Amino acid sequence: ELVRQGEALKRTEQMVDKMDQDLKTSQRHINSIKSVWGGLVNYFKAKPPESKPEQNGAPEYYANTRLKEAMMSSKEQESKYQESHPNLRKLDNSDNDFNKADLVSSVQRDAYPKNQQLRAYHQKIDNNLDEMSSGLSRLKSLALGLQTEIEEQDDMLDRLTKKVETLDVNIKNTDRKVRQL
């Protein structure tokens, strides 16, 4: 949604720039209609550069790299997360809730108590903490990406606000000049 909003802001900024360019052209025409002197000045004055119309509307808006990287890594981890999530994976309701041999072999035996059941619970807690850590890491990277994108769009909004205010004043002045003709 944030990327879509960024695209809309970029298109809006381009439309405001086009309106400003059209207003400058209108100003030149008003000066040439107003007097012969204005027509001569416009004739010798350099014409404003024409901007090329964009193909297929506005160019692509690119979200900041931090957000794109976070979104890509999040999508890569999503299937792994769904496989390991307690509510999304198939639960084993047998008497032996976990395979103790697999759990013990993956971790050094010295790190856990000698009691097999207690050792298995410690291992299960460590695995859950690892899953929580990877999930929180994923959320952190997404949050940082979103923060950067929001800051960039905030700057874009500030620029757009200034352009629109200037354009509004110029439109009012041009309207006043046309009414005087």
TrEMBL record:
UniProt keyword Coiled coil present: yes
Coiled-coil residue spans: 143-177
Signal peptide: none
Subcellular location: Cell projection, Cilium membrane; Cytoplasmic vesicle, Autophagosome membrane
Positions of region (Disordered): 71-97
Limits of the T-SNARE coiled-coil homology domain: 1-33, 119-181
Any GO BP annotation: synaptic vesicle priming
InterPro entries: T_SNARE_dom
Molecular functions (GO terms): SNAP receptor activity; syntaxin binding
Topology in the lipid bilayer: Peripheral membrane protein
PROSITE patterns for the chain: T_SNARE
Keywords associated with the record: Coiled coil
Quaternary structure and partners: Forms a SNARE complex, composed of VAMP8, SNAP29 and STX17, involved in fusion of autophagosome with lysosome. Interacts with multiple syntaxins including STX6. Interacts with EIPR1. Interacts with STX17; this interaction is increased in the absence of TMEM39A.
Family listed: Belongs to the SNAP-25 family.
Cited function: SNAREs, soluble N-ethylmaleimide-sensitive factor-attachment protein receptors, are essential proteins for fusion of cellular membranes. SNAREs localized on opposing membranes assemble to form a trans-SNARE complex, an extended, parallel four alpha-helical bundle that drives membrane fusion. SNAP29 is a SNARE involved in autophagy through the direct control of autophagosome membrane fusion with the lysososome membrane. Also plays a role in ciliogenesis by regulating membrane fusions.
Name recorded for this polypeptide: Synaptosomal-associated protein 29
Annotated source species: Notiomystis cincta
Lineage, top ranks: Eukaryota, Metazoa, Chordata, Craniata, Vertebrata
Gene: Snap29
